[in-house]
Design a protein that fits this description.
alpha/beta; 29 helices; 5 strands; 5-stranded mixed beta sheet; 4 domains; Nucleotidyltransferase, domain 5
């Protein structure tokens, strides 16, 4: 009897090695569940599917079965039967949405801890902030930090977003302050801040300065450039009219599939190989050149489109708009404004794209603006105008546009007259448009120069001048100004000594004189021992690199949020949105994730998991 029972027990009991192998395989299967979550979050893809009843015959399992997450597991189960074993369980499947949220939270926390350590090692950071409305019509405040590593490379990192009831300065400042506290940082480490020019953000900058007065505020150079270009367009009637009518052309074509189809057909007949019409944004003035160019290259097709469309349109208001646009396109003034705006705005568009590049510093953006102004000044010559005038006349003849005419002479009101001299009137159309040409370029150059010269930017320029003047061994007065502002950040005697060492170094220059870009490149190639010889000068260089040129990282984060929280995923919780955003934006950290660490933290959270899953 005893022998029979012993044999039965042995037959039912698994070998120890078999048990260990089964546990390891189960742990590997759960690792692949985590890999699925990371993959979907990294790519910004939805995890759940369409909501259907769980007892549906077409979709057994309801929403879970239709989800990207579940279907990806099914696909991988074809190569790994242990995944299929997990999916067939009724409990401890580790595929529930609460498990997904827990994994996402652990990974997001791990990413933010790494960024926190980097900022603490850097010693200082800059704040970038913006507000945006999501698909659920909730106001979201996005917070990003910029810091500089020991290799003198600026990093812009998304820290999170917060839903707020309003976007007053107090609400936004509360979000910024909370982000600093959650990262276990101090406002005294903030030495720069960059926002758009809205009134509430200026108030936020003032509230940060009340805590740390050395946190310089920079109005985003991208927004400043956009406002400057908008002011130029409003001041020059020829350009303003050209942009207004270009916007009307885009509306008439893009808002009507029928007219769009007519234009596409005529374009293939009249101007084959030419790109189609580009839409014009009425608010972003630094992306206008491509739209203006598309109108110019499709000019014959557009004129033919109006002729055909006016016969098929029944609405009298739309017919009047088409007739008005067609008549305006036959005027020389519109053609001149179109081509002049295209020529000038191409340079501002190019500058705007450069400013939005990753890790662009304020010093670099300022020098790019000076270079853009220099290029614009080079085309402000009589020779360039005559070449431009000849090109316009040739285009006018090829398109059969009406000849230019002088506007009616208008005498200025007496209250504006300051002398008895006779008012000046252009003697011919060439002189009239020459004045418009020069006025446009002069206005753009002055506007760009003014938008980059801000109050706190003057303090920032002092730091740059300190290094540039140190190369010429003449920096006494500038150093006094710097030390007066940065009293607690630099040691005056040590900085002066180390500047003498720095002044003896041979810095390779690309142009006629040394620029900060040359100094930056020089410090990147120096070895660590030379950095230790000049720690105060190294801090000056890092301060210059720390000031962001634009708020583009916040804008890019807002674009990522719109990709993740779409109108089909508008019920996503704020916690999951934040965690997915961190994984999606910080792809380099997600790709280097240590799964064993995350699984150990997940397993240690509950006792039953320790029994189901081994510690990795």
């Amino acid at each position: 009897m005893h022998q029979a029972a012993a044999k039965a027990l042995v037959s039912k009991t698994r070998d120890v090695s078999e048990m260990m192998s089964s546990d390891v395989q189960r742990a590997e299967a759960i690792t692949k569940v985590l890999q699925n979550i990371v993959f979907l979050a990294r790519q910004g893809l939805a995890m759940r599917g369409n909501w259907v009843p769980s007892n549906s015959l077409d979709c057994p399992g309801g929403s879970e079965f239709n989800s990207n997450f579940y279907q990806l597991l099914l696909l991988r189960s074809k190569d790994d039967p242990h995944i299929n074993e997990i999916l067939q369980r009724k409990t401890h499947k580790y595929t529930d949405h609460s498990i997904q949220d827990e994994f996402l939270k652990l990974i997001s926390k791990d990413h933010l801890h790494k960024i926190e350590d980097n900022i603490k090692c850097a010693g200082y950071f800059a704040i970038e902030c913006d507000e945006v409305t999501d698909s659920s019509n909730h106001e979201q405040v996005i917070v990003c930090f910029q810091w500089v590593n020991d290799a003198f490379e600026p990093h812009e990192d998304f820290m999170g977003l917060c839903s707020v009831p309003d976007i007053t300065a107090e609400s936004v400042f509360g979000v910024v302050k909370d982000a600093v506290i959650r990262m276990k940082l101090s406002m005294t480490m903030c030495c720069a801040q960059c926002y758009d020019g809205a009134a509430n953000m200026k108030r936020v900058a003032a509230m940060v300065k009340e805590i740390e007065q050395r946190s310089l505020y920079l109005h985003c150079h991208g927004h400043s450039l956009n406002l400057a270009v908008a002011d130029v367009i409003k001041k020059i009637p020829t350009m303003s009219n050209a942009l207004d009518h270009t916007l009307e052309i885009c509306k008439l074509i893009k808002f009507s599939p029928r007219r769009d189809a007519i234009l596409s057909r005529l374009k293939e007949e009249l101007t084959p190989g030419v790109p189609g019409l580009r839409n014009l944004c009425p608010t972003c003035w630094t992306v206008c050149a491509s739209s203006l160019e598309s109108v110019r290259t499709n000019y014959p097709a557009l004129l033919a489109t109006w002729e055909e469309a006016v016969d098929v349109v029944k609405d009298t208001e739309v017919k009047a708009r088409i007739t008005g646009v067609a008549a305006k396109m036959m005027e020389f003034d519109f053609l001149f404004g179109l081509m002049l705006a295209e020529r000038v705005l191409k340079h501002t568009d190019n500058l705007s794209k450069a400013l939005q590049s990753t890790a662009m510093t304020a010093a670099d953006s300022y020098h790019l603006a000076l270079l853009c102004n220099k290029i614009l000044s080079l085309i402000r010559t009589e020779e360039c105008f005559l070449l431009f005038w000849g090109l316009i006349k040739k285009t006018q003849e090829s398109l059969n546009v009406n000849e230019p005419v002088l506007p009616r002479r208008r005498k200025r009101p007496a209250r504006y007259e300051t002398g008895a001299a006779e008012p000046h009137f252009p003697v011919d159309v060439q002189e009239f448009y020459r004045r418009t040409y020069y006025e446009t370029i002069d206005t753009v150059v002055v506007a760009i120069k003014n938008c980059f010269m801000q109050k706190d930017f003057g303090v920032y320029k002092k730091l740059e001048q300190l290094l540039l003047q140190a190369t010429k061994k003449d920096y006494t007065n500038t150093m006094k100004d710097v030390m007066e502002f940065y009293q607690g950040d630099f040691n005056s005697s040590e900085l002066e000594t180390q500047l003498e060492v720095f002044s003896r170094m041979k810095i390779q220059k690309n142009g006629d004189s040394i620029t900060f870009h040359d100094i930056h490149r020089h410090f990147k190639v120096l070895d660590h021992s030379q950095h230790l010889l000049m720690p105060q000068v190294v801090k000056v260089v890092k301060f210059l690199l720390l000031m962001p040129a634009t708020n583009a990282v916040s804008e890019r984060s807002a674009s990522a949020m719109r990709r993740i929280k779409t109108y089909l995923r508008s019920t996503m919780t704020q916690c999951r949105l934040n965690n997915v955003m961190v994984l999606h934006i910080h792809k380099h950290l997600t790709d280097s994730l240590k799964y064993i660490k995350i699984l150990n933290e997940f397993t240690a959270a509950k006792e039953d998991r320790r029994q189901q899953i081994w510690t990795f």
